[in-house]
Design a protein that fits this description.
Length: about 325
Amino acid sequence: MIHRLRWMIMLVGITLMGAACGAARAPVPAAPERLRVLVTTQQIGDAVQNVAGEQVELVMLLGPGIDPHTYIPTESDLRKFEQADVIFANGLHLEAQMDRVLAQLATREGKTVVQLGDQLDSTNLLSWEPEAGLPYDPHVWNDVRLWKEVVAAIATTLAEVDPSNAATYQANATTYAAELDALHAYLLAQADTIPAEQRILVTAHDAFGYFGRAYGFEVEAVQGLSTEAEASAADIQELAQIIIAGNVPAIFIETTISPRTIEAVQAAVQDATGKPLLLGGELYSDAMGAPGSGTDTYIGMMRHNIDTIVAALGA
């Protein structure tokens, strides 16, 4: 009897093991493949993250401290371009060394390439050097109202390419737009704390034209809209005279550009006046901050910039 009972227990165990093995061998439904989205800049990456969340596989080409004006894509970057379903670039010649690559990719079947600056109404863009084939200032993110339009263009593109998630993209874009409205109001309120005659913003290169127009600052810079050309001694002396005439108390470094030229302007002013000229802090112009810094989001970056400017110019 005991012997028979043991056999019954063994048979039940074998049956259960077989059932477990069968369950393990059963095919598991594959998770739907996510859209592969490549972006050139951190600002665009943050916008895509807010619109798409986990619905897409996001690859960001340029990180903190990297200047998009001069960046040359590597072989590894080119492979990332090839693997992407959707590519978002700022355009307007910001990613100057990538223009040819982006143009070629745009001709590929099954690949969507969007130059976001081109989606904006050109009457709202600042001019650059039309005679040189560079019609518009590319630093559009420095006006939150324009950046809202960029976010809307991202949501529309993703919805068209991935219609199964279209409702999610549009809902997220609407929520994020409300946050951008609040950011715009904050920037205006902070700028208003500085007397109008003190709103002279001096930086390393001319990245803040849209910021100046939107929030009431006169913007001066050592270099032009692109960082590809070096500032000359004459540029430095000319800017020093503007600072002296405007009684500007502080000038600003940018995180993507060597502080050398701004420090040369500081020295020129101090030599001419015998008075100290403060470095008002670092501004994020063409890239955002490192992860966990608080400036690793578009909203965090813009709040940091206006707070830094107010602390230096509003005193």
